[in-house]
Amino acid sequence: MKEYRLTDWLPATKKEAELRGWSELDVILFSGDAYIDHPSFGAAVIGRTLEAEGLRVAIIPQPNWRDDLRDFKKLGRPRLFFGVSAGCMDSMVNKYTANKRLRSEDAYTPDGRADMRPEYPVIVYTRILKQLWQDVPVIAGGIEASMRRLTHYDYWQDCLRKSILYDSKADLLVYGMGEKPIIEIAHRFLENRTEIPHDIPQTAYLTDKVDIEDNDIQLFSHEECLKDKRKQATNFRRIEEESNKYAAARILQKTDDGTVVVNPPYPSMMQTELDHSFDLPYTRLPHPKYKDKRIPAYDMIKFSINIHRGCFGGCAFCTISAHQGKFIVSRSKESIVKEVKAVMELPDFKGYLSDLGGPSANMYMMKGKDEMLCRRCKRPSCIHPGICANLNTDHRPLLDIYHSVDSIKGIKKSFIGSGVRYDLLLHESKDGAINKTASEYMNELIIRHVSGRLKVAPEHTNKNVLDIMRKPSFDLFEAFKKIFDRINREQSLNQQLIPYFISSHPGCREEDMKELAIIIRRLNFRLEQVQDFTPTPMTMATEMWYTGYHPYTLKPVFSAKTQQEKLAQREFFFGYKTKEKGLSKKQSF
């Protein structure tokens, strides 16, 4: 077991900075999460990335915004800039349920305390920093800033809000995965500390004046969207199409008091760049200040390995592709094995990896066969409404990773905790070898890599609802379930298939939920992983829920909005109702 010193973590106090011999800091990061020095936590990734560039970086986790603001003062003024992130989740999703009730636990906080972050930390932290240090640039990043960079619907305030740049007054916003832009930002500030750079890819900023270029995408203004919901829906389509292009255009959106400029993103990372990010000297442990305190989110991932970034599923309710990108970037086998060996050094590791996956369990190394076709494509999904003929769905590289990891002495079992895309497994390719490997993958997955429960996400049973969700036919789930059950019988295994479902998704009516309940009862499932749809910023489902229109067709889409409508749908998860005039018959299952 490796022993650590306090200086193995990035400093969180002045004393810790002094232990490193630092009298001045270059960058100070503020995060709504606890500081866990692990590649799954954004503040640690950005901090370690900047450290690797030779900068002196500190992290202030969960600063107190309700006292005399000492947490915002204690490290003084950084030489270059402050960085601000709400954390790994949008703060409002973190704090509230789909019914807008306060959650009792915050998974990213010691002992799960629910009172350690404000609503909208990007706004709160940035305003405080601007109040205290007016001339120091503040860079906002993370999922909350990313998904709120343009006009967006806020479910908790039930209104259309301007870009978070307006309310926060941040000087620059980094969207998506931030390693490449933050390095360039730091280098620019090292060259010129008085000028905010406005030409860095994957950043957004607010300006009074902008020179419009020929290829710019000009969205409907915030005020136009307030007056006409169809314009907001149209805006979303244009934003999503640009984000799914190999080479995107610059996006502009005006308001009465300025223009938000969103620069195109960087190209997808190269494998060597992604390896570099994961190979940084993380301790993979919470900061020692949390000694003897439980951090639920850390408990979930401490023995897991992330093998790729990105997702080409394009699910209507999901932010992963919007934040990480549609194109898969996979780590090398060497980098993955190196991290596995680092996990094996952790104090309470017993030989079992909880996950060897990513945003999806089985997209590792998958990409277009002809990259030139991908460069011209703006489809939001490579697998809906059907699997693209240009997509290489070969599972052999993933099987090779499983075999390599399982062969390491000291690894007893590697489980797959990420969601499995069964549509990729059941796809009939023109390449017989790929089809054979998909079958081999299913066998190996079910026999060797299930901890007792295998997670999959059909989300619904109704074809129309599934089409709106951009999810495959439920027939494919049933086909996969038959394979799962057969292999379990043949191998004398007692494993469960755990399906995830959503109620009240746009397009879903009570009769669709009744259909779901009847089908699930026929399949003898006792549902556990179910949720009521929560509108979150910058997803297609949220735009449909708010505007009432499908962004790609502008046809009306029904959504259950009242608490009564939503509860009526959710109840079908735990029973089904046959409604007649004034009568309701309920049967448990």
UniProtKB/TrEMBL annotation:
<keyword id="KW-0408">Iron</keyword>
<keyword id="KW-0479">Metal-binding</keyword>
<dbReference type="GO" id="GO:0046872">
    <property type="term" value="F:metal ion binding"/>
</dbReference>
<dbReference type="InterPro" id="IPR023404">
    <property type="entry name" value="rSAM_horseshoe"/>
</dbReference>
<keyword id="KW-0411">Iron-sulfur</keyword>
<dbReference type="GO" id="GO:0103039">
    <property type="term" value="F:protein methylthiotransferase activity"/>
</dbReference>
<keyword id="KW-0687">Ribonucleoprotein</keyword>
<keyword id="KW-0949">S-adenosyl-L-methionine</keyword>
<protein>
    <submittedName>
        <fullName>Ribosomal protein S12 methylthiotransferase RimO</fullName>
        <ecNumber>2.8.4.4</ecNumber>
    </submittedName>
</protein>
<keyword id="KW-0004">4Fe-4S</keyword>
<dbReference type="InterPro" id="IPR007197">
    <property type="entry name" value="rSAM"/>
</dbReference>
<dbReference type="InterPro" id="IPR006638">
    <property type="entry name" value="Elp3/MiaA/NifB-like_rSAM"/>
</dbReference>
<dbReference type="InterPro" id="IPR013704">
    <property type="entry name" value="UPF0313_N"/>
</dbReference>
<keyword id="KW-0689">Ribosomal protein</keyword>
<dbReference type="InterPro" id="IPR058240">
    <property type="entry name" value="rSAM_sf"/>
</dbReference>
<dbReference type="InterPro" id="IPR020612">
    <property type="entry name" value="Methylthiotransferase_CS"/>
</dbReference>
<dbReference type="GO" id="GO:0005840">
    <property type="term" value="C:ribosome"/>
</dbReference>
<dbReference type="Pfam" id="PF08497">
    <property type="entry name" value="Radical_SAM_N"/>
</dbReference>
<feature type="domain" description="Radical SAM core">
    <location>
        <begin position="297"/>
        <end position="577"/>
    </location>
</feature>
<dbReference type="GO" id="GO:0051539">
    <property type="term" value="F:4 iron, 4 sulfur cluster binding"/>
</dbReference>
<dbReference type="InterPro" id="IPR022946">
    <property type="entry name" value="UPF0313"/>
</dbReference>
<keyword id="KW-0808">Transferase</keyword>
